[in-house]
Every structure is written in C-alpha cells, then in structure tokens.
Design a protein that fits this description.
The protein is built from 45 helices and twelve strands. It is an alpha/beta fold. The longest helix is centred in the middle third of the chain and has 18 residues. It is flat, with a radius of gyration of 35 Å.
C-alpha cells in the first residue's frame, strides 16, 4: 500500500482555492465540511502550492486545549517575539508581517477552535489585506456556525467540502492499494466509509495488517469482518465528539432503525436532542424522505451501537414497537424491523420475522433470510415458517439440511402455489441443492399421476425444465406444448419462457428464442428476487447469440445483466460476471475472459457450487486457458471441471467436450482435438441440440476436418444465424484445399465479430498457401493470423499453429537477418558485426534458402512481418 496517498477527486476545489488566494474579490478560502473528508489535506496542498510560488506561509493547527490561552494560535511567533506571554495583538501582527516581501498566506486548521484574541488577529489581518488565508471548520461542531458566519463576513470564499464521489473514491482506493480492486471489495469499502478519506485510510491499513485485505487472483479482496475494531471505534467517537445521554439516545435510535420518521423518533427521544443531533450532522435527512432521518455516517452507527448491552436492547424494543404500531401511516422496511426485533428485549414474533425472511429472500440475502426463518420456526411459526427455512437453506447451498426439513412436511400440503408449495421446493432442492436430477424427475412423474389444475401445469413446466437440463430440448418443447399457460402462476410462466428460450436456441431457432426471451423480460418484475430469473435468461440468451454468430448482440445482453447485478450479493453477481467472461471468450477478448472466469476472482458461494453455476464456468475457464496457450493450467482446470460434473447440468456435456478438445490442441495434439470435437457433435446430434451440433462440427473444422461440410449443410436448414453459413464455407474450403476461400471466410468471421475464428481460419489458409508454393500469400495470411491472435491474447496458443514455421537459423544468421530487415546494406552489416562483406553475403544466402525466399528483399519482408525476438538460439519462429 502506498504510504502517502495521492490527492484524488479534488482538482476542481484546488482550482477554486488558487483563484481565491490570487485575489479576485476574496482574501482566501474557508473550507467547511464534516470530519474526515480531507479539509486539512486540501488546505495543505493549497498552501504548499502558494509556497512554491514564492509566497510566505504560516500554518496553525488549533486545539480545544489551546482555546483557553489568549493568542494561543500564535505561539509559533515565539521565534520572532522574545516573550510571547506578554505579546499583544499588534506585536503579533507586526511580527508576522514585518520584513516580508510578497504575499503572506496563513493556514489555520479547525478555525472554530481559535481563542477570541487569536480570532481577532486573524480578522484584522484579513481586513487589512496583509494576508490571504486558508481556514478549515468542521461542519456541525461546537462553534462552527459562528465561525462560518464570522469568516464569511471577512471576505473569505466558502468552500463546502463533501465526501468523495463514488468514482473518485474507487480511483483513490486503486491508487492507494497500487492495484486492481475486486468490485465487491470496493462496494463494501464504500458502504463502510461513504467517501470519508480518514476512515478509509484507517480501515485499509487495519484490514491489510490483519490479513483480511489481500491480493487474490491479481485483485485486492476483502474478507470483511462484521465487528468494528476498537481502534476504529475510538477514531470515530473522537470525530463525533462529546454528546449528552439524550443526544446519544437519538443517534442510537436512528442507528438501530436505519431510517426513521420524525414522528416516530420524537416519540422515543427528546425533540430538543433530535434537533441538536441533526444540527451536528450526527443524523441527517433521509434522501428518500425529508421527514425521515438516517445516521450521519455508517460508522457512527457501528461505533455507537457497538455496546450491546441491556439498555440498547430496550431501545431497540421501543423503536421496534413504535415502528410496528405506526402501521400503514409510515413505510416500514420488514428487514430492518425484523433485525430490531431479534436484537431487542421483545419476545419473538413469527409474523414479523416471517415477513422479514420474505423480504430478505427478495433481496437475495439468504443469510438473513435463514436467520429470520429459523427464529420464526422457534417462535411457533408452523409449516409456513419451516418452508421458509428450507428455502433459505437451499439458497445457502445447504441442500441436505433443507431436505431434512422438507422430509417432515407432507407433499400433499398445497399451502400455496409456486414457490411456497412444499413439492416444488423439494423438486428445486433435489435438482440444484443436491444435484439429484433423476430423483427430482421421479418425484415430478409420481406427482403428475394425481395432480390436477394449476398445480399439474406447474409440474409440467418443471418436467420441461428437467428435460432441458438433461440436454433434451425437443422433448422439453413437446411437454411445454401441453401446458395451459393461462393457468400458470407468474413464477411458472417465467420458468416456462426461460425453458422455451433455451430449448428453441438449442434447436437452432434463434428468432423464436428471441421472441420468448423478450416476453419473459416483460414478465419479470423489478424485485431483486426475480432478477435471478433474469440472470438465467440473460446467460442463456447471450450464450445462444454468440453461438449463432451474433457476438455484438451477446455482449449487449451480458453487459446489461452485469450492470444490473453489479451490487447484488451472491450468485446473481458472480453469474453475471462469469457470463460476461463467456461472451468475452466468444468475442476473442481473452484477457477479459480469463479475469472474469477465474474461480479465485469470482469466489463462488456455496449455492453457486451446489447449483452447478461454478461447474458451468469452470468449463469455459479451461477453454479460455487452452486457447490462450496455457496448456498446463488448462489441463488442471479441465480436470477440476470433469470431477465436478453433475447430472443436473447434462446439457453442458458438449461444452465440456469442446473444452477437452481445445486442451488437447493446446498440447499440440490436433488429431485428438478433432476427434473429441466430433464426439461432442455426435452427442449433440443424438440429443437434438442442433445449434450445439453445428458449433461442435465447426470446431472440428477448425482442427482440419473438412468432412463435416455435408452435415453442416443439413443443419443449415434448421439452424439460424450467420455462423452456420460461414462454417459451411469454412469446411468446404478445407475439403477442397481452397486457401483463397479460407482467406475470404476468415474476413467474414472478423466482420461477424469473432477474431479468434478469423485468426484460426487465416492460420489454416497460410498452411494451404505454403503447401501450394504461394510464399507471398502464405506470408500475408500467416501475418494476418498472428496479428488477429495477438489482438485476442491467443498468439501463444493453438489458434495460429499453421501460421508458424521454425526456421533453423544459426545465431549469426538470425543477427544478419534482423539487420537486413532493418534496411542495412551488406557492408553496413559487416561493419556492425565485425565481419567481412563476403561472410555477410554467405549468411544472407543461407538465410534465404532456409526461409524459402528468393531474395534479400523477401527475407527482409518475412522478418518484418514476424516476431523473432526472444526465440531460442538457432531457431526463429515465423
């Protein structure tokens, strides 16, 4: 971590201060702001800049203790006056100004703590024009209002300094830590400090020293602790300052309530204390409602409520009861009320806790949902509370515990439709919580024998989903055809459309899949719980678009999903990030793909692991590593993926085989790569995953199999999108040995937005051109393949295998060839290498023969088009 942090996000303020110190109608600047926002640092930078311009500067730091000493702020003039104890205001002014050429700049930190005599001196200096000044005043502190009024009258320009904006805050964190910062880490740092630089500085140093803030996978990550350290609490309390018991109760009430209306607050605390706390900035008006209060800073709340004693429990109880009694007259946050209730001295209320559990689940906070639901069960909440508890455990990745609860609830207890149906919860837990798709399928089949009405149609949707997860899109569509959509609950309608979108895409019907996706988006409400369905939909849609040959559209879908989920917890955020990485892979952006797919960076939670999300993206991570040329890491990642495969993700079997194909290619085994790609295509054909079959066959073509053209032509009648059409041209050109057509196909893939396949095709074209004796065309195609691969980050991988030829140059021949490429004549080369001209001519002839070029000019062209730097002695790579 950098020891001295760079000033960040204050450029505009520094400009204003420089203008004010230069005159322009004012005699300096009064910086007003809350504690810790950087007033002192900003003043220091402005005074330092003035000093650098040759101005004389004095700096004063006021303290509460010094306020009792007349002229206490000017004790430093003891170096000028023999006995400061008998100094008068006139003598201090004379001492400061006598014999000084040019402008004087006076800096006073915490000017609201000036003693009266010192304040008079400062005012006289300002009014006389003898000095320019930079003063800081803490907003809301004792005497701050009077100080602001006094110095504003003295012709100081007032600058109200606020905490850093989020963008500037993120930039400061990166600069302070000297590296990339994980998005969730930055968000949690922001939530704790809200742009307060003092608190951030302390927090970063403390957390790094304790080992909770560290670099993982090239990014800073924070294993945040819920407990505030004593040193940070002391710092915050010091910044807050002394307060009466009444004011402490006000701040405590707002802290425990999070947001509280004025009417409720004045009912549990003294109205005068409310006004004092508000005036000091300890509480502030809520952004959403001017008639409600929130805490002045998140750390104020943590510091004040850190004492978890009986008095605080009673305060929470009073606030909780007041909020509940307010009823419909005041908006109530069920989560906040539930937390208050749990931490209070009140007996547990299953109704309050049940609503809190539902609200927490809706916000994807499974930890809180489980806590509330467990408490509701203990308070006698009955079967409904038990179902809530099982559902929360499921989303925590604790499927076995959820199953034990569900085993005690009869499956014919149809308490409610959709997510509250114990049968539906059990099916979901078996499928994603325990990876037991076969058992979940039997459960659905058994239930369908007796089910009727809306429940039957909901079960049919689940049956279609199971078929889709098993890689049977045609069968899934057949089952969906028997469902009466109008009889479905809203959640079942959404699930049906997601299954339909996935199945249609697998069948190659991309246009129809897009229609279903848009209809599904319209059904998904704004609640964050249903964002999970939106994420699933976006993942399926982005993947299908990239496979069909629309990588630009896929990127747009992935970006929207990523932006929406950036600040959500758990599986929603990690899945959207990983999906963005998959699209980056399909668009040839390997650097982004490797970063977004890295499991160490994603840090999947237990539900992401149990539900198969982590497995899915481990496949694409292995593929990305292989394409990038990291064969050892790719093989290890592939093994991890293969070991974590589960039946509920059988629809990804072809993707797993394709990753295996690319890993084989990265190890130099093109034949094995081709064979595995064909196996993947055969599996997809057997399952009627026609779009995936076409993609697998095209992968086989990338490994030299032109025989796939016939089947690709058959698939083109059902598989929509430009990729299949270009794949046919690609395979036919390979079968015909038509390098010129491969050049054209490569250009087509580049225009489509897939530079990786464009590079691969150009590399194959280079090989065909070379075998046909077209050296110039081979050079052109090979150079283009390497250029494209470099742009993707794949120049070291199997993408450009045919574009490389090893030329057995000796060390001396390589040196001569490089100098030829730089335009030196034989004589100049001879002088540079201390050789005879005849020897140089011999090396040039030998180099031309080894490189299979006809002239010195062609040799120079070859060397300039390839990178021969850093190769081992005796060989150059072309």
């Amino acid at each position: 971590m950098s020891e001295r942090w760079p000033l960040t996000g204050r450029g505009e303020q520094l400009g204003l201060m420089a203008d004010a110190l230069g005159g322009n109608g004012s005699r300096g600047v009064l910086i007003v702001g809350p504690a810790g926002v950087g007033k002192t640092r900003l003043a220091h930078e402005a005074i330092t800049a003035a000093t650098a311009l040759g101005q004389t500067s004095y700096r004063v730091a006021c303290t509460a203790a010094g306020r009792s000493v007349p002229l206490g702020a000017f004790t430093f003039v003891g170096d000028i006056i023999d006995d400061v104890r008998v100094a008068t205001a006139d003598r201090v002014i004379d001492a400061l100004t006598s014999g000084v050429d040019g402008q004087i700049v006076l800096g006073i930190d915490d000017a609201h703590l000036l003693d009266d005599a010192s304040a008079d001196v400062v005012e006289r200096l300002l009014r006389s024009g003898a000095v320019r000044a930079v003063l800081t005043v803490r907003a809301g502190g004792p005497g701050s209002a009077a100080a602001v009024a006094r110095w504003s009258d003295a012709l100081l320009r007032t600058l109200e300094l606020q905490p850093l904006l989020r963008t500037d805050f993120d930039r400061l964190v990166r600069r302070a830590l000297v590296g990339a910062v994980n998005g969730e880490c930055a968000q949690r740092l922001w939530a704790r400090t809200r742009g307060n630089v003092l608190f951030l500085h302390h927090l970063l140093h403390q957390e790094q020293a304790d080992g909770r803030l560290r670099v993982v996978g090239g990014q800073w990550q924070w294993a945040e602790t819920a407990t505030m350290s004593q040193s940070l609490r002391d710092l915050v309390l010091l910044q807050i300052g002394a307060m009466s018991d009444d004011v402490r109760d006000v701040v405590g009430a707002v802290a425990v309530a999070d947001t509280i209306s004025r009417s409720i607050l004045t009912g549990v605390a003294e109205p005068a204390a409310v006004e004092e706390a508000s005036g000091r900035g300890l509480i502030t008006a809520a952004p959403s409602s001017p008639d409600a209060f929130v805490i002045g800073h998140p750390l104020y709340a943590e510091a004040i409520v850190a004492r978890d004693d009986a008095g605080l429990a009673r305060l929470r109880g009073r606030v909780a009861v007041a909020i509940e009694r307010a009823g419909s007259s005041v908006p109530v946050d069920p989560i906040r009320l539930g937390l208050l209730w749990l931490a209070s001295d009140l007996p547990a209320d299953p109704g309050v806790l049940g609503l809190a559990a539902d609200a927490a689940a809706d916000r994807l906070d499974s930890v809180l949902a489980e806590r509330f639901a467990r408490a509701a069960v203990g308070a006698g909440g009955g079967t409904t509370a038990s179902l809530r508890h099982a559902r929360a455990l499921h989303f925590l990745g604790r499927g076995a515990e959820a199953a034990r609860i569900l085993d005690g609830i009869p499956l014919d207890d149809e308490l409610a439709e959709g997510p509250s149906d114990p049968l539906i919860i059990r099916i979901a837990n078996l499928t994603w919580g325990m990876g037991a798709l076969d058992e979940a399928t039997r459960l659905v089949d058994d239930a369908l024998e007796t089910a009727s009405g809306p429940r039957r149609h909901g079960l049919l949707v689940n049956r279609a989903l199971q078929l889709m997860l098993g890689g049977r899109p045609a069968a899934a569509m057949s089952v969906l055809g028997t469902v009466e959509r109008g009889r479905l609950a809203r959640l079942d309608q959404i699930t049906a459309l997601i299954v339909e979108t996935m199945a249609l895409a697998d069948l190659g019907q991309d246009l129809a899949a897009g229609v279903s996706a848009r209809e599904c988006e319209g059904l998904v409400a704004a609640s964050t719980q249903q964002v999970l369905h939106l994420v699933i939909l976006a993942v399926a849609r982005a993947s299908a678009l990239a496979m069909a040959g629309y990588p630009g559209e896929a990127l747009a879908v992935a970006e929207r999903c990523r932006n929406r989920c950036a600040e959500l917890p758990g599986v929603a955020r990690t899945t959207s990030e990983a999906a963005y990485g998959l699209v980056a892979l399909r668009r040839g952006d390997l650097a982004t793909a490797l970063k977004c797919l890295d499991p160490d960076v994603l840090d999947f939670d237990e539900y992401s692991i149990s539900s198969g999300v982590a497995y899915r993206y481990s496949i694409y991570y292995a593929e990305a590593l292989a394409v990038a040329g990291d064969s050892v890491s790719a093989a290890a990642a592939l093994r991890r993926a293969q070991e974590s495969r589960r039946s509920s993700e059988a629809h990804l079997d072809t993707s797993l085989l394709l990753a295996e194909s690319w890993v084989a290619a990265s190890h130099g085994s093109g034949t094995a790569a081709r064979d595995v790609a064909r196996r993947a295509a055969d599996l997809a054909r057997d399952r009627q995953q026609f779009a995936q079959e076409a993609y697998c066959l095209h992968t086989a073509a990338q490994f030299g199999d032109g025989s796939v053209v016939t089947r690709l032509m058959e698939l083109a009648t059902v598989v929509e999108g430009p990729r299949c059409r270009l794949a046919i041209r690609h395979a036919r050109a390979l079968a015909d040995g038509n390098a010129i057509e491969l050049d054209s196909v490569s250009a087509g893939f580049e225009v489509m937005g897939d530079p990786l396949v464009a590079a691969r095709t150009a590399s194959q074209a280079a090989g065909l051109h070379r075998r046909a004796g077209r050296r110039g065309s081979a050079l052109t195609a090979g150079e283009r393949a390497i250029r494209l691969a470099r742009g993707c980050g794949a120049a070291a991988g199997p993408i450009v295998a045919e574009a490389r030829v090893t030329i057995p140059f000796t060390r001396r021949e390589r040196e001569v060839a490089l100098l030829v490429a730089r335009g030196l004549s034989n004589r100049e080369i001879a002088e540079a290498l201390s050789l005879s001209v005849r020897t140089v001519e011999g090396h040039v002839r030998h180099s031309c023969a080894k490189a299979d070029v006809a002239s010195r000019t062609e040799l120079a062209l070859l060397i300039t088009r390839v990178d021969v730097e850093g190769v081992e002695p005796g060989a150059a790579t072309v």
